Amino acid sequence: MPLTCLILFAVLQTPLAAQDADLLTPYRAAAQKKWAKAIDEFDELNKTEAHPADSILFIGSSSIRRWLTMSTDMAPYATVRRGYGGAMYTDMAVFAERVVSPHQYRALVMFVGNGVVGAPTDHTPDQIEQLTRHIVHVSHQHQPRSPVFLIEITPCEKRFDAWPKIRAVNARLREIALSTPHTYFIPTASHYLKADGTPRPELFVEDKLHLSESGYKLWSTLIRRRLDDVLQANVNAE
To answer: What is the DSSP pairing of strand 148-151 with strand 183-186?
Structure first.
């Protein structure tokens, strides 16, 4: 490549790289301190596990980590499960390249249920939107043709006081999907609510936060249906 082209390429890339660095800088130290061990464990798993290149990569928080029946629930899709308990959008963005780049995948699916819990330290919708866009960008840089799916945050009894704030975050996730190529939203929340608008208790375990077996069965049905629609449409378009 001629020198002038290399210089132009560097100039075009620098603003995005600098922007990403500025975005993540406030969160790096806390993410490293709390979650470095969990990410190291993923690195070790990657040395021993083998997955087909058309697997669906699931990343996120404890709802992904605790989904021990994922491989059967999501059949016939092959899956890779990379979730860690307590994950927030901040640390997921910091570690996005280490979590995502070791894998080849047909699609990436993300669920992060933390960061907005009704506390003064909650992240704002603006923060979460920026961080999510960064994670999506990391995936698209790694595999441009692999779609990214964002799962709606589930309403649960433990955090229901924060539901209006969580709904605002869900609206941002939907907007990201609508405004970003090869990015899709998976709506789930309405299925976890009773007719009176409160969470269905049978879909959660005793902590009133994490999904029960029935909750996972419903989740997998909704996720698989959305994957089927998008991935089949992509096949037909090729």
So the answer is: parallel
Q: Which pairing describes strands 56-60 and 79-83: parallel, antiparallel, or unpaired?
A: parallel
Structure token digits, residue 10: 């560097």
DSSP 76: T
- Please provide residue 212's backbone torsions phi and psi, each rounded to the nearest 5 degrees: -85, 180
Q: What is the CATH number of domain 3-237?
A: 3.40.50.1110
Q: What is the pLDDT of residues 135-180, one digit of tens each?
A: 999 999 999 999 999 999 999 999 999 999 999 999 999 999 999 9
CA atoms within 13 A on the CB side of 198: 7
**Nearest alpha carbon to residue 101 among 26, 22, 46, 19:** 46
Per-residue tokens: 167: 């709904």
DSSP symbols for 147-215: -EEEEPPPP-GGGGGGHHHHHHHHHHHHHHHHHSTTEEEE--GGGGB-TTSSB-GGGB-TTSSSB-HHH
* Cβ-contact 96, 105 below 8 angstroms: no
